[in-house]
Every structure is written in C-alpha cells, then in structure tokens.
Amino acid sequence: MRAPSSELPVVLDRVSFRAGETTILDRLSLTLAPGAPTVIVGPNGSGKTTLLRLCMGLIAPTEGGIAWGGRSQATMARRAIVFQRPVMLRRSTAANVAYALAKANVTGSARRDRVDELLAQVGLSDLAQRPARQLSVGEAQRLALARALARDPELLLLDEPTASLDPASTRRVEEIILMAAQSGIKIVMASHDLGQVRRIAGEVVFLARGALCEQSSAGDFLNCPKTPEAAAFLRGDLVI
Fold first, then answer.
1. In the β-sheet with 22-32, what is the strand arrangement from edge to edge?
2. What are the per-10-residue average pLDDT scores of the chain (240 residues)?
3. What is the pTM of this model?
C-alpha cells in the first residue's frame, strides 16, 4: 500500500517566471491534486515546459510560491520528470535502470529484481543488454519512463513524451502512462495532441500567453470550452 502522499497537492500561488525581459508565466495560481491525469495544453510558447520544471523544482519562480503537500521545501525524492528528448547514459538498457535505482537507494538483490520488473513493465526485457544509445526513439522514451518509475514517484511529470513518436510507439508509451496512473501515481503531462487529451486526461489545464485560461475536466474542456482562446485552440485556429 502506498504511503500517504507527501508531494500532493502541488499548489502554485500567483507564480510568475521571467527570463530577462520576457515573461513566460504570469501570476499563475493552480492546484494539482491527487487523482486522474492532468494534461497541460496550449500553443507553443504558452509556458507548458516551464510549468513542469517549476512543479518538479528544477527552477524557482521569479515571484509567487509553490508548495508540495503543504511544504515549500519538500524533497524531490518522490517526484520524477521525463523530457521529450531524454538523454541516455553510455551503458546498457538494464544499467540505465540500475543507475536510477541506485540513486533511489535501492541496493543488492532488490535492485536486480526491480530492474527486471521495470524492464518488463515497459516492454524492454529483450533489450536489457543493448546499449541504451542504440535504442529507437520509442524504445528510449520507454526506458526514460522506466528510469522515472524507479524513483517510486508520487508525482510524474511528462513533457510531450510522444511528440516524436509514430502511432505504434505512441500507443505503447500511453499504455505505460495509464498503468502508472492506475497504480496511484499522479501524472501531469504536457501535450499538443487533442486525441491524446481524450485518451488520457481526467483534467485539462489550458495555458495561453503564460496565463492560466482554463482548468476543468477533460470532457468540459473538449465539449464546452469557457474562453474564446480555448475555443479557438480546439478549432485549430492560431492562438497568439
């Protein structure tokens, strides 16, 4: 049974993030609670990746505050993030996972057993000894998910994890994401694919021009958008 969450909810209170003179996120207040996957959507440049990095704690807000489970200085031990183009270590597929487990303080036979479990979970058991940098793009993304799951995260952040994948690879990655969500892990994922929103999201966060325009159930967002920007985005119009 999973221990009580120490990372959730993630609460952003009037968070802004600036790079030089450019405002990337502007006074954004948002709560990410336990439950079904949250998918972040919006046009390019709306701040999706920056929001994920803030939620992970990789960067600090220029203004405002973030709390994880009610604490502003919560450890990152139970958070994990997967980027669109993950970097593979110069070692085998299995050794990449073993390294992640070592960083999570899993030792001895438990580590070996867990490597096998994780590779089976992401469908890479047959490629355990292949150099990770020789994997296909889709295989590498599944390995990145295995490394993230090695941290036993309560919060898993995904930055457009299927953006470069073909439909078959996308389906396999989505299956892993949904299995993780069903196990109780909170998924927060950026995506540009409205079909993916329908398949995965329980909740949608819509960003435009660095601001939070909508936060609602996936069904409400897709069928009854509340703002002109969201309606335009769903029609496929340019939202600048």
1. 22-32, 10-19, 63-68
2. 68 96 96 97 95 96 96 86 94 97 91 96 98 97 98 96 94 98 97 95 96 96 94 86
3. 0.94
